[in-house]
Specification:
- This protein is mainly beta.
- It is about 5% helix and about 40% strand.
- It contains one helix and 15 strands.
- A hairpin with a 4-residue loop joins strand 7 and strand 8.
- The N and C termini lie far apart (about 45 Å).
Length: about 150
């Protein structure tokens, strides 16, 4: 029987090994932190006024505590993977991704059926919740060690 949270892999001799290490975001590995890159702010719905941190790479949205962005107050949101917001630290861009559940996702009142780039203050509608996108990383700031391609880099 395999332990929960463990995956099997083979070493270079073909022997089975257990891998219990969690996947780590590339930027977290480089900087030794998983920094905030932006926020979603609930402007309409049961959790109005609450904010949710966006980290690097993919941030899955749902009602479950297992989600990166957990919106508990809205039962019209899928428990897991209703949608995702990603931050690409190489391109310094954010995208909204539709989830793999039944519920739809809207960006500025248009249905999202494929990943689409986000702009500051875009409105995301998931279930009965409306979220405002507020980026932290952008032209004037990004979390990159030793990279000076944009304004302020830390």
């Amino acid at each position: 029987m395999m332990d929960a949270g463990l995956t099997r892999r083979k070493d270079n001799r073909g022997d089975s090994l257990l891998d219990d290490a969690a996947t780590v975001a590339k930027i977290r590995k480089e900087l030794d932190i998983d920094p905030v890159t932006g926020w979603l702010v609930c402007v309409k719905g049961p959790d109005r006024g609450r904010d949710y941190r966006i980290r690097s790479e993919k941030n899955f949205i749902g009602r479950s505590d297992r989600m990166d962005i957990c919106i508990r107050g809205d039962e019209t949101i899928s428990r897991e993977n209703h949608a995702a917001v990603s931050y690409n630290f190489r391109k310094n861009t954010f995208k909204l991704h539709p989830g793999d559940g039944r519920g739809l996702v809207f960006l500025n009142e248009e249905e999202v059926d494929a990943p689409i780039e986000l702009a500051p203050y875009d409105r995301i509608e998931i279930g009965n919740t409306q979220l405002l996108f507020v980026p932290f990383c952008g032209e004037k700031f990004q979390w990159r060690s030793g990279d000076s391609r944009s304004g302020r880099v830390f």
